[in-house]
Amino acid sequence: MSNNTAIYPGTFDPITHGHIDLIVRASKLFKKVVVAVAINPGKTPFFTLAERVELAKLTLRDFDNVEVCGFEGLLIEAAAQKGANIILRGLRAVSDFEYEIQLAAMNRRMQPAIETLFLTPSEQFTYISSSLVREIARLGGDVSDFVAPEVKSALQRKLAQIPDKHHH
């Protein structure tokens, strides 16, 4: 295990088995993994930042070297604050690649000391995305295979608060 600290940014709306798989694997590679939950002003999240941080903390509570925090602003600044020298990103499909390469290049330009590393999910998780999980839950499907039990109940609670959930 290296002496590096990795920061894994994302919206985590909500955190899925795909994210967790990646974090668990990263926790074996790095001294510390910081899961940085983004405010993401461009999107209106389903869960609030506080809820997303809480759900991530709940599902990752058994990992000593994993820390969860919320962040706003530039990722490289959050990385500097946390002493992270590696940005971790998950690549599910070729379609993620172009944007991620652009992001990595921009981050390197702003902060050459920080490396971006890509991990691919285990094959059983490649098709899972938070937006698909939300959609399945919204349509009354079972999301047990994709998220932790705590996340599943949080989804159900949240959806129960939304009137007329079957019409978009």
UniProtKB/TrEMBL annotation:
GO BP annotations, alphabetical order: coenzyme A biosynthetic process
GO molecular function: ATP binding; pantetheine-phosphate adenylyltransferase activity
CDD domains listed in its UniProt record: PPAT
Pathway(s) of this molecule: Cofactor biosynthesis; coenzyme A biosynthesis; CoA from (R)-pantothenate: step 4/5
Superkingdom, taxonomy of origin: Bacteria
GO cellular component annotations of the record: cytoplasm
EC number: 2.7.7.3
Site (Transition state stabilizer): 19
Ranges for domain Cytidyltransferase-like: 7-135
Residues where ATP binds: 11-12, 19, 90-92, 100, 125-131
Family to which this protein belongs: Belongs to the bacterial CoaD family.
Job of this protein: Reversibly transfers an adenylyl group from ATP to 4'-phosphopantetheine, yielding dephospho-CoA (dPCoA) and pyrophosphate.
Subunit structure and binding partners: Homohexamer.
Protein name stated in the entry: Phosphopantetheine adenylyltransferase
Name of the gene encoding the protein in the UniProt record: coaD
